[in-house]
Design brief:
This protein is an alpha/beta fold. The protein is 48% helix and 9% strand. The protein contains 25 helices and twelve strands. The strands form two sheets. It has a seven-stranded parallel sheet, covered by helices on one side. It has a five-stranded parallel sheet with strand order 10-9-8-11-12, sandwiched between helices. Helix 21 links the parallel strand 11 and strand 12.
């Protein structure tokens, strides 16, 4: 077998391993191939794809840059190399590299229309500094403002070129997003002409026998959204409401997905898995002649997001599944609570806000197989920030630093992100900001629900993130009553813990107004004597059992609100 035949053998072997998702063996095969054919374009491309799957982004970047340098001499088509680099810089949250790459790719005509628009809409979900947020956000918002004035903007097919809206990522950087969300909505309508065509639709004025209400989400499965909203779906009075549950064709299977499918007889509603085609999705929903369509989590699913830009029911409603205004005139109402809003809250929303007296959900108390004992509940000096790393605003680092300086025995626990690169970025940022106390920070692997709740119970105190705080996780943590310190702003996405404390009617809850007070209260709670620590957890537990879990008052109130939306 000559060198060419050997190279081909290892290449074909690598492709088979890659197709079978055996990426380590694929890597070895492609490297063997490259040792015999170092300038093989297909091998460099496939090895780069393998590196990406293995999370070895720096290695993939080097190979692709080398491939592009070869193509300058050979004048070969290197479109895939540019697109793979785009994917790498997206995973790395590297706005500057992606911006530079996109300018070059667009100039050299390496990007088609889809990737050109993708490059315009990219926004990081994690930042290393306040200055980086300021600079990147200004560039992004200026770019969007300029784009909506363009007359020759690329037009895309919604079924073939489905873009991920950046609204979700924007919600974590600590800024007001009403104006930018409004501009993005205008831009999406220009990108996808089908949205204007499908909006020429009128619903009849005839009344349904019952109020027809649909709940739509990709995440009615093993996900937070299922936990937040299944109680409303199950408990609505079916003598008054005809209930539909719409799933995305991308909804992942899971225990909770099975539950919502199997509960249709017990709770009398209809499950519908929407088809893949956008036009068919629209048709299926419109055929139900809904009075109300309830989007539980706008901005979280690119597969369903663009439906919000088309009229599918007489009234459209959203809520706190993703707790931020949509900027979308097609969404009529935002379901919130008097417990969550502050004076002048209306200016934060494009929707008309509906205020319930309670948190707008029926939350089932978690059930655990293995529960903690008193000794495990009484540990000191353990701080647990149980939120996703994308919520770790750079300003939050100052809180972490001060806690570790003040509590010399303190240990702070975070949960790793499934994106290893994001976890590494957070670790490096913390290492720089916390410095000599970094050895008292621990990052643990993601946990299943029961282990997660037990980890909350073992903590002395839970740390709510700033700007965008806890919601479902707070409710689960109240199984053991571990107090959460929170610092709410005027925006609802940071006020859910504070609102839950109000509903629980907790005396002197740990709600603070500034960083120093946050640190002081956290350290105080983490250093309580055993008896007092157990008493506080028991008290919070009692209040949660009484007022937070399975709140029977919310269902008739929501029924009244839903009825009021119709003539």
């Amino acid at each position: 077998m000559n060198e060419y035949e050997k190279a081909k053998f290892y290449f074909d072997e690598g492709v088979k391993f890659y197709q079978n998702k055996n990426y380590e063996k694929a890597k070895k095969s492609f490297l063997e191939c490259l040792s015999r054919a170092p300038n093989s374009k297909p091998t460099l491309e496939n090895l780069s794809k393998t590196y990406i799957e293995l999370g070895l982004l720096d290695e993939a970047e080097k190979k692709l840059i080398y491939l592009i340098s070869l193509n300058k001499e050979n004048k070969e088509n290197d479109v895939l190399a540019y697109k793979l680099l785009f994917k790498i810089y997206t995973l790395q949250n590297d706005y500057l590299k992606l911006e530079k790459l996109s300018k070059e790719a667009i100039y050299k005509k390496k990007f088609d229309e889809e990737f050109t628009v993708k490059s315009y809409l990219f926004y990081p979900n994690f930042f290393n500094s306040l200055d980086q947020i300021k600079n990147v956000r200004k560039k992004f918002t200026d770019k969007i403002s300029n784009l909506i004035t363009e007359t020759n903007f690329p037009k895309l097919d919604l079924n073939k070129n489905l873009l991920k809206p950046p609204n979700f990522e924007l919600s974590y950087d600590g800024n007001d997003n009403l104006e930018i969300n409004q501009k993005l909505v205008k831009l999406y309508v220009e990108i996808y002409p089908i949205l204007k065509q499908l909006n020429n639709y009128e619903f009849t004025n005839s009344k349904n026998q019952k109020i027809k209400i649909g709940f739509i989400s990709e995440f009615f499965t093993d996900h937070t959204i299922m936990k937040l909203f299944k109680g409303i779906i199950y408990k609505l009075n079916k003598d008054i409401f005809e209930v539909y549950v719409f799933h995305s064709d991308k909804t992942r299977l899971g225990v909770k997905f099975n539950e919502i499918n199997e509960s249709v007889v017990l709770y009398n509603y209809k499950n519908i898995i929407l088809p893949q085609s956008f036009e068919d999705k629209v048709k299926v929903i419109r055929e139900k002649n809904l009075d109300i369509l309830f989007y539980t989590d706008i901005h979280m699913s690119k597969n369903l997001y663009y439906l919000t830009l088309v009229k599918l029911a007489k009234k459209h409603l959203t809520s706190w599944g993703h707790p931020e205004t949509t900027g979308n005139k097609n969404i009529n109402f935002f379901l919130s609570s008097k417990l969550l809003e502050t004076e002048g809250f209306e200016k934060n929303y494009s929707e008309k806000v509906l205020l319930a007296n309670y948190l707008p959900m029926y939350f089932y108390k978690p059930k655990l197989q293995k529960k903690l004992n008193q000794e495990e509940l009484a540990k000191n000096n353990i701080y647990f920030c149980s939120q996703s790393l994308i919520k770790m605003h750079p300003k939050f680092d100052k809180i972490i630093k001060k806690i570790l300086e003040k509590d010399k025995k303190g240990k702070i626990i975070f949960i790793k992100n499934r994106n290893r690169n994001l976890t590494n970025q957070f670790v490096e940022r913390l290492r720089e900001s916390v410095k000599e106390n970094f050895d008292r920070i621990e990052l643990i692997n993601p946990l299943i629900t029961e282990d997660y709740i037990n980890k909350c119970g073992e903590a002395s105190v839970l740390l709510d993130t700033i700007w965008f705080g806890a919601g479902n996780s707070f409710h689960e943590s109240m199984f053991y009553g571990t107090p959460t310190v929170t610092m709410p702003t005027n925006f609802m996405k940071s006020r859910i813990v504070a609102g839950a404390y109000k509903q629980m009617q907790v005396d002197n809850p740990p709600i603070v107004n500034d960083i120093d007070a946050y640190v002081e209260k956290s350290v105080e709670l983490a250093n309580l004597k055993t008896k007092e620590a157990l008493e506080i957890k028991a008290y919070y537990r009692k209040q949660a059992n009484k007022f937070l879990y399975e709140n029977e008052n919310i269902i008739p109130e929501l029924e009244k609100i839903f009825k009021s939306l119709l003539p």
